[in-house]
Amino acid sequence: MLFFTQCFGAVLDLIHLRFQHYKAKRVFSAAGQLVCVVNPTHNLKYVSGRCAVTQSAPEPGSFPPHLLPPLLRHHARQPHLRHHACPHHHPPHQEAGLHAAQVTPCTCPLFSCQWEGHLEVVVPHLRQMHRVAILQGAEIVFLATDMHLPAPADWISMHSCLGHHFLLVLRKRERHAGHPQFFATMMLIGTPTQADCFTYRLELNRNHRRLKWEATPRSVLECVDSVITDGDCLVLNTSLAQLFSDNGSLAIGIAITAATEVCSSEAEM
Predict the structure, then answer these.
(1) Which pLDDT score, from 0 to 100, does residue 189 have?
(2) DSSP string, 98-131
(3) Consecutive 10-residue runs of the chain (269 residues): their mean pLDDT?
(4) Dihedral of the alpha carbons of 255, 257, 259, 263, in degrees to the nearest 10
(5) What's the CATH code of the domain at 226?
(6) Residues 226-249, buried b or exposed e (16+ Cβ, 10 A)?
(7) 26/250 Cα distance (integer angstroms)
(8) How many Cβ atoms are within 10 Å of 162's Cβ, its own excluded?
(9) What is the pLDDT of residue 51?
(10) What number of other Cβ atoms are within 10 A of residue 110's Cβ?
(11) What pTM value is reported for the model?
(12) Number of structural domains found in the chain
């Protein structure tokens, strides 16, 4: 009986998802935009203090061998070859930066996941453990469903463009008891220096009302809660989110561009 109940629930979820896809295509088909329908990740066990790990340096052996990429896995087995195994030759300052980027620890952007790893395995983790698909394109419509769910809740999408992977994270959280808010930010799966080379724009548009947010993406090495605390994100209170939502779904237009002037000046330095 439990098996049939679970199957029936799965069928209802599938029908609901198909209905959301149909609504999204109907609304945005005229503009020819790619639509990403995102269901929430909901978990009441929220631990905001876990982000502190991103600020500390990793200790030897802190990552299990199966989570390391082949190069670092080889270093872990043979520490005496650590400075001689790299097949590429980089200037000393670049080599130090690359090594730091490879071993810098970070956490999963989803608040409900306690996974800790490093930069090179964030994308495989999101794809394998959370079934987050990779969309292609610099302009996407992010359609978050079930906005009425209580906080905390996350909506996340990942897409590839301009040679990098980006994450849009929409988080519902109570900064003050009884007053939930929505926070949307774009994160680059890369270093903060790489993130400075891009600009993103979030746009909400409904019933002749338009709201835009433009900023530089933050690195996934920084925790989402830190971005929220810094105020470097789009913030919506409940009434404003309802103003732009349609039957419990919120559509956010995403556009990512390369900040060529910043990147060219850094390359010259």
Answers:
(1) 95
(2) HHHHHH-EEE-SSTT---EEEGGGHHHHHHHHS-
(3) 59 54 47 74 52 38 43 40 37 48 74 87 92 90 92 92 95 88 95 95 94 96 90 94 93 91 53
(4) 130
(5) 2.60.210.10
(6) ebbeeeebbebeeeebeebbeeeb
(7) 15
(8) 13
(9) 55
(10) 22
(11) 0.68
(12) 1
User: Is 154 part of any domain?
Assistant: yes
Angle between helices 70-77 and 92-103 in degrees, nearest 10? 90
State the pLDDT at residue 89. 45
Beta-strand relationship, 249-258 and 198-206? antiparallel
Q: Can you name the residues that pair with 176 across neighbouring β-strands?
A: 179
Query: What size, in residues, is the chain?
Result: 269
pLDDT at 1: 59
**Inside any domain, residue 4:** no
Tokens of 215: 């900023």
CA–CA distance, 89 with 26 (Å, rounded to integer): 53
The C-alpha angle 252, 256, 261, rounded to 5 degrees, equals 145
Within a domain: 72: no
Q: Which residues pair with 161 in a beta bridge?
A: 164
How crowded is residue 104: how many other Cβ atoms within 10 Å of its Cβ?
16
Contact status, residue 113 vs residue 130, Cβ threshold 8 Å: yes
pLDDT of residue 175: 81
- With respect to residue 84, please indicate whether it lies within any of the assigned structural domains: no
Residue 144: which domain range? 33-39+103-263
What is the Cα–Cα distance from 194 to 254, expressed in whole angstroms?
A: 19
